[in-house]
Design brief:
- By secondary structure, this protein is of the alpha/beta class.
- It has 14 helices and twelve strands.
């Protein structure tokens, strides 16, 4: 089949990674049309396939010959970003459509200038990534994010190439409890690292708002990688660390852990499950046990290659496309991942939100914004 993806932003490179994996491991003809090729003030972090602002004729030809159009995040049938391509017209002519959510409904609805209720009511077969956003799209089929673990930027380095003990990056400056999800706790994590540095003289590398290739190089040259230790969800940076054979610290609540086990088929997840409040002691212990640290890193990459490889994960998307052309109504929430019923909604979302508020209060940082965020994220 001819499958064409559209995205208005890089979305941490995931649309491009997905398209490249589909090109590599399936027989479909697949392309990604990015709105432009100069995101982030000319410093494109992730690369691109087709740039609409430079290759518009090619993009239009691909769109109008596609069997399936895969929209990412801020796009729906009425989006005009890629005009003269008319998504609603293509849908009426018989092109199959699927959209994929990478963010919360509140953020996406704001970009589309519609209400959350209107967003959730849109009748487009939908997917959502198997991280925190899936809790807020109860009807969408859940699919995994992944990394190309065997490409050069994701490979481990030799021990003598390590320059730093700990790597941490975040593109959000706000505190751990300033928002529900739009944070990785940068101020608190940096304060913890400064304390650790004073006590142990460890070498720390931070690289926020840096080009993607630089970030990946720094990460490869570090012994330990820190993911999000604030919110309860893992991110792509953690998967990148696993691919590089690093111990990865990340706070994952029970919902996040369940999702990882569901898609991997493994009975455990490889992250070192740690909140930033506890991370100082964990990091000090690891750095005092170098052989253990190396063993954990080796286990990290082995787990990823066995249970979460790009080849295995892209199979979930190929299954989506087969279902879509057979019967679009098959693109719906997996019964085992239900969050729509009152019981499952409480156990898998509300309970974790309440725990986060209590955690914030105990830390002395329960902001009104955190409470507002939680209430606004109700599906």
């Amino acid at each position: 089949m001819k499958i064409v993806h559209f995205s208005t932003t890089p979305l941490a490179g995931m649309p491009l990674r997905l398209v490249q994996a589909l090109q590599k491991y399936t027989e479909h003809e697949v392309h990604l049309i990015d709105l432009k090729d100069d995101y982030n003030r000319g410093n494109y972090y992730f690369g691109y396939d087709i740039s609409f602002n430079k290759q518009q004729d090619e993009a239009i030809e691909l769109a109008y010959s596609a069997d399936i159009i895969h929209l990412h995040n801020y796009l729906d049938f009425d989006s005009k970003f890629f005009a003269p391509i008319n998504f609603r017209e293509l849908h009426k002519k018989g092109t199959f459509f699927v959209r994929q959510f990478h963010s919360t409904p509140a953020l996406i609805a704001k970009q589309l200038k519609i209400s959350v209720k209107e967003l959730l009511a849109q009748n487009i077969p939908s997917l959502v990534i198997a991280q925190y956003p899936e809790r807020y799209f109860p009807q969408a089929m859940v699919v995994p994010n992944f990394v190309p673990q065997d490409e050069e930027l994701y490979l481990p380095v030799e021990e003598n190439e390590l320059k730093w003990d700990i790597f941490y990056s975040s593109t959000q400056n706000c505190g751990a409890f300033d928002a529900r999800w739009d944070t990785k706790g940068m101020p608190e994590t940096k304060a913890m690292l400064e304390r650790l540095e004073q006590k142990t003289a460890c070498r720390i590398k931070t690289a926020s708002f840096s080009p993607f290739t630089e970030v990946m190089t720094y990460k490869r040259q570090s012994a330990i990688v820190l993911d999000d230790m604030a919110t309860g969800s893992y991110h792509l940076t953690g998967l990148e660390g696993l691919a590089m054979a690093k111990p990865v610290l990340s706070y994952m609540d029970s919902r996040a852990k369940m999702l990882m086990r569901y898609f991997s088929g493994s009975d455990h997840e490889p992250h070192i499950n740690t909140r930033f409040e506890e991370a100082e002691a964990v990091l000090a212990y690891l750095m005092n046990h170098k052989e253990l640290m190396r063993d954990i890193g080796e286990h990290s990459r082995n787990w990823l290659k066995k249970y979460w490889s790009d080849k295995k994960m892209v199979g979930f998307y190929e299954d989506v496309y087969q279902k879509l052309v057979h019967d679009p109504s098959l693109i719906r929430r997996q019964p085992d991942l239900d969050t729509a019923s009152p019981v499952q909604n409480f156990m898998n979302k509300t309970l974790h939100d309440l725990r986060q508020i209590t955690r914030a209060e105990n830390y002395g940082s329960a902001s009104d914004k955190l409470r507002t965020d939680i209430s606004s994220l109700e599906p």
